[in-house]
Amino acid sequence: MSRPIQASLDLQALRHNLEVVRRAAPRSRVWSVVKANAYGHGLDRVWSALGATDGFAMLNLEEAILLRERGWKGPILMLEGFFHADELPLFDKYRLTTSVHSNWQLKALAGAKLNAPLDVYLKINSGMNRLGFTPERVHSIWQQLKAIANVGQITLMAHFADADRPDGIDAAMVRIEQAAEGIDAPRSLSNSAAALWHPQAHFDWVRPGIVLYGASPSGQWRDIATSGLQPVMTLKSEIIGVQTLKPGDTVGYGSRYRAMGEQRIGIVACGYADGYPRHAPDGAPVLVDGVRTGIIGTVSMDMLTVDLTPCPQAGIGSPVELWGNEIKIDDVAAACGTVGYELMCALAPRVPVSTR
Ligand SMILES: *Cc1c(COP(=O)(O)O)cnc(C)c1O
Known about the structure:
With 356 residues, the protein is α/β, with parallel strands linked by helices. It has helices spanning 11-24, 35-39, 43-46, 61-69, 88-93, 103-111, 135-146, 170-180, 192-197, 329-335, 340-345; strands spanning 6-9, 29-33, 55-58, 76-78, 97-100, 118-124, 151-158, 187-190, 205-206, 233-245, 250-251, 257-258, 263-268, 285-288, 291-296, 304-307, 319-323, 353-355. Bound molecules: pyridoxal-5'-phosphate (PLP).
């Protein structure tokens, strides 16, 4: 047997989560967002479980080409468009829909030699000030795009900075309405948070990412606890060593944890080189032999340590869930001051992955 760490992916949960999105946004088509190697799950492993989607959205040309080579014939949206004009022949060859967020991209489109026009997502800066045209420029950009023979259907696209808050899209919606005035085009505005919580922003296409993988757009599991979403990724390992500490004994690098009294601890085959966050604090939740306990001491490259006080029956070989159905990835992330997105995207290539 090899090192006991393993990630397993519940493909049925992925299918189910896409259904949850469809029920939440019944009148919209769905771009399933599979950027960052499907949020760390592995695009090649998961895309066919999302085969009921209307399209896939991502950033990397390599990932888009992989989907075409695997036989996906439906729409593919490149969320940040082409990064250089010399990518356009590949957008043409593989029939990719491109976002357009900067002036130079119009010139590149106008000057390219394409076999057929490309559909374009005209990106509006909703106030997030990442990519996109300010509202007052959108009408003119739309007219310029319409005049380019290489441009097919134009969709208005925007992204929300605060859709996880109840009033979080109000200001952005004002800007988007201002930008869209007098433009007869489909719209795609909603990420996961808006798809779940802001029906007024659904329009023609929603673009869920994180909810497909069963984690919360707000970073708080309680916000999706009743949504029916199911975690897709489980990260498991085992106890490979046990120590009994005496009062005053310390654990791990920097001796961050010090035992108050006698205490049994377990050493788990999982470290930051597997993608577990190094800055996880004492008490970050973990499941050992079916019992909820906490990690203690600084996470090492290949190991971390857990308190066995609540589970005296546990010992070498006991199963450990780092995150999954019982220990929500959102709860681990929240303990570590981050969001589930970062943890799943950081799953290290050395962790073997199985699907079920
Ligand atoms: C990542 C991304 C999404 C999906 O965001 P989630 O919060 O994961 O749903 C949607 N649209 C764009 C432009 C993105 O970059």
